[in-house]
């Protein structure tokens, strides 16, 4: 997937693409059908449906989605048309379109979370090593854009590390629950199936167990239906923004420190990167610029998701729910891209110690060799990072 107006979008790969989300929807239908079969509520046949849908179906379903307001209605019709006569009537029994969309989004989001957790893990290791390497590299601190007091570059990096650890903690603890509430969020159709099948002493509990088994099959968490309680979506949004916040903070320091008149850092060198269409002498800090772009764009996307959550009325929202889908997809992909760019920035960051020393010497401040508790703070940040990764 590419996006001409979001340079670097290809770094997000297949995460949250139409094809991935369609495959997730089919996986949800398969898991649910398998859970019905295991409970004796549907024929005990192979419930795998993935082979029934291919990439060309994406456009077909997208074009037809406007009629019902979501792509699930067309997908269910397609699956029933292509499935065996034995399985066809049981596809989607007990589900509603929101169950499939919400669970598919959570399934795709789980892969995003795993990807970002691994990225943050690597960044924590990179920043820890950078802080140790420069724990005694003196530089001038700046507050309100002006020279302040001496610190070490290692202390500055320790601050970056703390932010990345915060992001890691938030995103690694996210819950991605399945959604299997049925038409109005109380398992109505599944309870009816259980009652008609006979043999179930408590049809309601059996319906709940079907939902639990389907969630487990997908590797998702189980919780009561959350059709109009949108906490899983807003929690994910907040965690994603926490990532872009931490990376934006790093990029903001880098773009300042790469200014020619400061010259304390340089971005990793790469052929063709940082060029200008009209000023060939320039080498723009393009990685930091693009990371800052994501940090600026992410909070409004999260705000949209919070607004949608607040307006989630009745037992299925009329427009608020629909506003979430592409907003969450966009936020997730932008976050992956920014994470990849920040990882590349940190792994190849060039530190100019001599320039840091000259800038410190030129600063009109007393006691240029007093670094306070910088070493202690670095050690505390490193210890916190190690505890976080250890779980």
UniProtKB/TrEMBL annotation:
Keywords: Isomerase, Lyase. Residues 80-295 form the Fumarate lyase N-terminal domain. InterPro entries: Fumarate_lyase_CS, Fumarate_lyase_fam, Fumarate_lyase_N, L-Aspartase-like. Pfam families: Lyase_1. The keyword Repeat does not apply. GO terms for molecular function: isomerase activity; lyase activity. Belongs to the class-II fumarase/aspartase family. This is 3-carboxy-cis,cis-muconate cycloisomerase. It comes from Mycobacterium asiaticum. The lineage of its organism: Bacteria, Bacillati, Actinomycetota, Actinomycetes, Mycobacteriales.
């Amino acid at each position: 997937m590419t996006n001409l107006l979001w340079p670097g979008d290809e770094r997000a790969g297949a995460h949250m693409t139409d094809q991935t989300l369609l495959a997730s929807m089919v996986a949800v239908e398969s898991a649910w059908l398998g859970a019905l079969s295991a409970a004796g509520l549907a024929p005990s046949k192979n419930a795998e449906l993935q082979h029934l849908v291919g990439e060309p179906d994406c456009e077909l379903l997208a074009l037809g989605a406007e009629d019902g307001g979501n792509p699930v209605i067309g997908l269910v019709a397609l699956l029933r048309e292509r499935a065996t006569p034995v399985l066809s009537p049981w596809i989607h029994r007990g589900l509603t379109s929101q169950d499939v969309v919400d669970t598919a989004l959570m399934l795709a989001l789980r892969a995003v979370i795993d990807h970002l957790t691994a990225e943050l893990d690597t960044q924590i290791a990179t920043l820890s090593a950078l802080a140790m390497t420069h724990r005694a590299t003196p530089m001038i601190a700046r507050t309100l854009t002006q020279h302040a007091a001496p610190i070490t570059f290692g202390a500055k990096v320790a601050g970056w590390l703390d932010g990345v650890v915060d992001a890691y903690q938030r995103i690694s603890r996210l819950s991605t629950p399945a959604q299997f509430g049925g038409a109005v969020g109380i398992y109505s159709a599944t309870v009816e199936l259980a009652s008609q099948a006979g043999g179930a002493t408590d049809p309601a509990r059996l319906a709940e167990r079907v939902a639990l088994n389907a969630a487990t099959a997908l590797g998702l968490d189980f919780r009561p239906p959350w059709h109009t309680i949108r906490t899983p979506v807003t929690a994910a949004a907040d965690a994603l923004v926490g990532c872009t916040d931490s990376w934006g903070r790093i990029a903001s320091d880098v773009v300042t420190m790469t200014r020619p008149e400061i010259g304390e850092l340089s971005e990793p060198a790469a052929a063709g990167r940082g060029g200008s269409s009209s000023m060939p002498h320039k080498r723009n800090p393009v990685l930091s610029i693009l990371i800052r772009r994501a940090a600026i764009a992410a909070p409004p996307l999260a705000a949209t998701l919070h607004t949608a959550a607040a307006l989630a009325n009745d037992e299925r929202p009329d427009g608020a729910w629909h506003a979430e889908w592409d907003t969450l997809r966009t936020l997730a992909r932008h976050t992956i891209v920014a994470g990849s760019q920040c990882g590349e920035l940190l792994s190849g960051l060039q530190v100019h110690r001599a320039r840091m020393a000259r800038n410190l010497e030129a600063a009109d401040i007393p006691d240029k060799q007093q670094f306070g508790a910088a070493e202690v703070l670095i050690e505390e940040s490193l210890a916190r990072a190690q505890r976080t990764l250890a779980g």
